[in-house]
Specification:
Structural class of chain B: alpha/beta
Distance between the termini of chain A: 61 Å
Shape of chain B: globular
Number of strands of chain B: 19
Strand order of the largest sheet of chain B: 9-10-16-15-14-17-18-19
Number of domains of chain A: 2
Number of helices of chain B: 26
Number of helices of chain A: 11
CATH superfamily of the largest domain in chain B: von Willebrand factor, type A domain
Largest sheet of chain A: 5 strands, parallel
Strand content of chain B: 15-25%
Shape of chain A: elongated
CATH class of the largest domain in chain B: Alpha Beta
CATH architecture of the largest domain in chain B: 3-Layer(aba) Sandwich
Largest sheet of chain B: 8 strands, mixed
Number of strands of chain A: 10
CATH superfamily of the largest domain in chain A: P-loop containing nucleotide triphosphate hydrolases
Helix content of chain B: 40-55%
Helix content of chain A: 40-55%
Strand order of the largest sheet of chain A: 3-6-9-2-10
Strand content of chain A: 15-25%
CATH class of the largest domain in chain A: Alpha Beta
Number of domains of chain B: 6
Radius of gyration of chain B: 35 Å
CATH architecture of the largest domain in chain A: 3-Layer(aba) Sandwich
Largest interface: A-B, 38 and 43 residues
CATH topology of the largest domain in chain A: Rossmann fold
Oligomer: heterodimer
Amino acid sequence: MSTPAIHTEQSLITNEPYYEPVADEVAVFTAAYRNKLPVLLKGPTGCGKTRFVEYMAWRLERPMITVACHDDLTASDLIGRYLVRGGETVWVDGPLTSAVRNGSICYLDEVVEARKDTSVVIHPLCDDRRLLPIEKLGEVLAAPPEFCLVISYNPGYQSVLKDLKQSTRQRFVALEFNYPGVEVEQTIIEKESGIDATGARQLVKFGHMTRNLKGSGLDEGASTRLLVNAAKLIHEGIAPVVATDTAVAQALTDDEDMLKAVHELSRSIF
Amino acid sequence: MSDESRQNFLNRLRIQKDLEKFTAGALARHGNVEDTVARIAALERRDQDFVYAWVELIARSNHELAAHFIGRVASAFDKMERSGVEDWVDQAMTTFDNRGLGFAIEALEHVDDFAREYASRHVRCGFDDASGFLRHFVRGLGGRELRVISDQSTFTDTESLYLPDVVNLYPEPEQNFTIYKLTAVHLWAQTWYGTWRYQVVEQLIRQFDDEHPMAIFNRLECIRLEACIARDFPGLSREFRLYGSVGEAGDALWDEWRRRASRLAEREASAADSLALVEAFGELPLPPLRPFEGDMFAGRVRQALFARIEREKSAFQRAMQELRDQDDRGEGGGDDAQKQLVEVEMQDEAGAGGEDVNFQLTIDGEVTAIPEHMKDLMGSIMQDFGEIPDDHLEPLERGEYSDALLPQKGDVDGDDDPDLNDAGSFSYREWDCVRQRFREGFCTLRELSVPPGDEGFVAATLDKHRGLLKSIKRSFEAVLGESRLQRRQSDGDDIDLDALVEAFSDVAQGREMSEYLYTRYRNQERNIAVMFMVDMSGSTLGWVNDAEREALVLLCEALEMLGDRYAIFGFSGRTNKRCEVYRIKDFEESYSSAVRQRISGIRPKAYTRMGVAIRHLGQLLQHTQARTKLLITLSDGRPEDYGGYKGKYGIEDTRHALLELKQGGIHSFCVTIDNEAQEYLPHMYGPANFAVIDEVEKLPYKVADIYRRLTT
């Protein structure tokens, strides 16, 4: 007897997620999907990787299962495990197994954070075999053509302990993401938050200023996501400088000089 | 007499008696004792105690001085808080100790001056208070990275912003701070909105080599920049207006100038327009500069500008050459790079000045992606020229190309050296990027020991960086303290429910039950071996060498705490036959007094043949047992050695050596203080595997911090 941990009908995306294509990533993803190739998304945090996968899932009309990886995530968290119910054991599928069974898109976010043993299950699934061995069940699942594995990671991390192994990364079609250009970013902010063009433009400019600081005091500049957050606050009637302070500056740093600098940069525009 | 006034009277009597006793009668010689006492009696109880305490203290040194103090202290309290009064007595006492009674009394008597000075000290904003913020702020505004330096005059030479030591114009510290900020913005605007474009500077120096026209140009530019800032930074513009008043007459003059120079406020206006107007304004009286406006020194700008143009031109040409070479290779080897047609197109969004520009680079009609470091370079060139000048796009002539790939000649003389054949020498291959193959056994390397230096250096460093060391240790402790839950242990603090359920299901299915059913908190075991490779080339002579040694001392202290296995080697050499690495600390050695002496004994030697050192130290690292192996290089420049090992050849060999390490599972990282490192380090080490430190003094701190981040 087996129980799915995730009901796939619930993970079907019915409304079109808002996504603004930057280059030919939609075409590349579609082609990879048709050819049953797994996809690796590289890029800084908050630049639209997750939203892109959601959008593609909607476009391809496949359910999507997202797993946010953390450093305690093991292979059995992905595959599934036996549980005990009323003196009997019941097998519960993990997210990856249900995705394979149902031909969903499985998105492993920040995959480098997961334990190393997860690569054991990812590898056979990502080459031309497309198999998921479930040791506990003594079963080997063959992935249907609709199944697609997507992983993401941020190459900006400098820790040597968090690097994606060559044997893993060389199984994927890699798409590089970055913050969108001025106009696209402005459109995104407008559409996501509902603020006017002037406000959005000022926020984009502010975002660029913080990105200038990357490497000279900030680890990362403001991501598009942070700018959208600030825009939403502004749309609610919060003063722009307060919105950027709370939604952006405090999220970026704790350093006092830097906080003050970001605060003043915001004040200089609004 | 009412009770209250009677009480007061007695109080005053008591105070007078006390004070006379303290001063041994000296007070009586001063006139108007009663009045003085009355004023002291009127002070709050706490302040009275303060007076008593000090009188007693001063009287121990000198009774006369104590009497003078009593005479003035009430007026001091009128003018200052208690802490100010304390400063005032304190400096009088210091004067007494150093210069005698006369000067000390004088110091006490000038209580008014002191109070004024004290007040200003507490409202002014010092450079040190603002510089940290300003550096970030100006960087955020955009454009070329500018240093922030304090100086007698306020100006920019387009490489640095020179700001006053202290701003003390307004009663509130906040306001003075704002003046600092606006001054920095104004100077930044000169560099960003093209005041110091090459063409302008040329004409300025040719035409107006005099103070007055320069002052006119300065004011016209103030008007133009004011308008630019109003367009792009409404928030700043509001503050400029708020602090921009220079009295009625001055403001009227500025208005008059603004009216006459109205076209400078247009979007298309440039510094050339200001220049064209200078003569027309020759007869008008000059409006006074506003608090945030500085001087202009065209000579200083020209000096900085010319040096930079040369530097950036060759850097740009070098980068273009690399792009062309890549392009050639892609097409199976084009015969002559010079035939290629290169175009740089700018998609300028808002006409003249400032705005961010998108570049598009076309080589032979094909759009080519511009590498990140080149964008900064092109941005900086744009700031100087407003375009990428044609001569920048011309290919380097092979002859003058400093990186020309010379044929590598082995060093023949070296064979005479008797040391070469001793047991301590190793032979390594080197990658020849011209031939695209290895030169086997080309390099001979010896392992030497650093002669011990003065151990006092270590003590002095620890003392100098006491505070820093504490904070480094604290942050390293946090790394150690990170305990985590370990699951599926054979014994432990708590039951692992997941494991238990699984075991139960195994039993139910008739399988064997696992014995690993417990969880346990435990510090994660660090299993890291790290090799520090320290540049001992001649160019590190002076403070770079000092900073390297200091960094090593702090690092050793911190690493001892972490328990990571580490080794330190220096490297240098001259020609392929005399490559040398200097043993400072082996993996097996403890951080002993001998090691400390060797750290202190590190001295600059000869050149930087990096590849062979990396191969040798990589071997040593390879033979140690550890899960994570790391090679960290501290360096001050690109690889370079006598006899053709420079430029591309050196970089390619080093890159190859690093790739070999990577294949062996060794991570490499580079910490450098070379500002041009952006050009070659990403290529050598990979985009995220290096850090450039802009100020040498920061090296000790940064190295420890980088190490912590790398290994957690």
